[in-house]
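[#protein-structures] MJ: dropping Dehydrogenase here for a structure pass
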Amino acid sequence: MTTHAPHASHTVTLPASLDEAVAALTAMPAAVPVAGGTDLMAAVNAGLLRPAALVGLGRISEIRGWQYQDGHALLGAGLTLARMGRPDFAALIPGLAAAARAAGPPQIRNAGTLGGNIVTCAPTGDTLPVLAALEATVLIAGPAGTRREIPVSHLLAGREMLRPGELVGFVRVPLLHAPQTFLKATGRTGPGRAIASVALVLDPARRGVRCAVGAVAAMPLRPLEAEQWVASLIDWDGERGLVPEALTAFGDYVAAACIPDPAPPLDGAEPAALPATALHLRRTVAVLARRALGRALS
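AK: finished. structure tokens for Dehydrogenase:
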């Protein structure tokens, strides 16, 4: 998003379709798209953003639901967090529903959208580690009816960016029909911003475990070696249970991968100790990862 001069004229456009919204953004390059506005309005109220024009997405019905497509769920970017938290959606993608329910107080969940979570890309976005663990992709609508699809992790990492006039229209999520968990730690009781969060997904068809850790870095982190190690210990054709020691070791493995020790100095001196805050964060991630795997296997 771009800041604009305080005396610029303000216009609001309310398109009825995704292509109309793309056309409006193409015609007004300085315009900012807005859906729930939970992050946008906070920036405006804080004086950090002064958009010259707004393109409201609230009337685009095609991006407010979902549909089934070749073993995947095609989720509209306008789905609210509150809608994703309902039981029918939880039966479809339980990890994403759990993250949506944990995203904050009702007023935030009622307004905030899946697409807004992705585009804002806040490190504490609760749906982001789940989307990373599910290896979801985003379908992007562009000018002249163009469409392209990229992994959501590429967008979150900045490896691929939205081009002028483009909008996230849909999110494609594989339907695994397998256990999924999402856990997060906050600095206070009740809904709040995550200090750390962990999404964990079992993929029996590929005999894999996928884990993503949120809030500890600018984007969700995937501890790939820890995933491969613990997947090799699971009896995929049997009980799938693990002894407590293995669960603890997995948690420690994930935490050390995401919050590593400081690199040793080049002069050969003793490496610096990890700060107390980082040690506490590492312990928090270890507990979340251990519990998430334990619940998924139970």
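MJ: nice. The radius of gyration is 21 Å.
AK: one more thing. The chain has three domains: 11-56, 66-174, 180-297.
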